Amino acid sequence: MDKVALLETIAAGGATGSTMAQRFGVSRAMIWKAVEGLRAEGLCIEGTPGAGYRLEAGRGFGPVSLAWRCARPVHFFECCDSTNAQARRLLAEDVSASPLVVADAQTAGRGRRGRSWRSEPGENLLFSLVLRPNVVPQYAPRCVLAWAAAMAQALDVYVKWPNDLVTQTGAKLGGILAELDAEGDRVRTVILGVGINVNQRDFDDLPDATSLARERGVRIARAPLLATLIEAIEAVDTSGAPSLDLWRNRSHTLGQKVRVGQVTGLATALRDDGALMVGGQAILAGDVELLGPFR
Ligand code: BTN
Prior knowledge:
Layout (H helix, E strand, L loop, with lengths): L2 H10 L4 H8 L3 H13 L4 E4 L3 E4 L7 H7 L4 E4 L5 H11 L6 E4 L21 E7 L8 H16 L2 E3 L3 E3 L5 E12 L2 E11 L15 H5 L5 H13 L10 H5 L7 E4 L2 E8 L5 E3 L2 E3 L4 E3 L5
Parallel strand pairs: 3-4
Antiparallel strand pairs: 1-2, 4-5, 5-9, 6-7, 7-8, 8-9, 10-11, 10-14, 11-12, 12-13
Helix pairs in contact: 1-4, 2-3, 6-8
The structure holds biotin (BTN).
């Protein structure tokens, strides 16, 4: 039985065990068993005699609930090494695939600049999306900036150069690890690995980190949030070099006194190639340290 179609039917409302048994051509017992499978995924499905099954909005995080919300093929792992590594393996099997890889936990989560990415199991979003922007490799960083800004807009947060998602005070909510594969002068794929702190409360040894739940004071349903982020990423026009205006509007970095490596100064502009202008110098890679209070 197609569990995604079953969930769709329940979500539409008014479906009883017998109408669904008829529709899917199976017994009522099989429908009941499949509903139990959906509940095991965390979906909150109430069954009332006569009124049928009802889905409580927002709950559930697993292969069926995600496939139901996202148009791409979803590969869900309770635990994997790294969703970026998994996406790379899937691409090795099928070069034309554009999967979404999601994990509840990672054993070897990777961050930018060779760092690791740690995340409490079952609390956050850890995903990798295979994207195919139609650009030359030099424009790939620009695409990543545009995707980061689109996510910042969807979450109503800010971007810290280059691709961190931060609160208004600069606390880190999430990060992006983008891995590029190019052939000749064209980008073949970008594996966009995204980690967002959603419901985690403690960041003992990371004083600058926070989560959406900590900021908003409520737990947040991860499946609809993930679907919103995917939609925002996919809406960015990468048929050519994308606009960076949204990044500039969502920036936490521009106008601040910062240090990046050896360079200290005012972050005055984001160049069209993605470079950050600090004290008149173009910075192409590095970590931004904020030197003054955020205005
Ligand atoms: C950063 O250093 O800020 C980037 C962190 C990116 C972490 C995400 S979690 C999902 C995906 N899989 C990984 O191994 N890394 C990225």
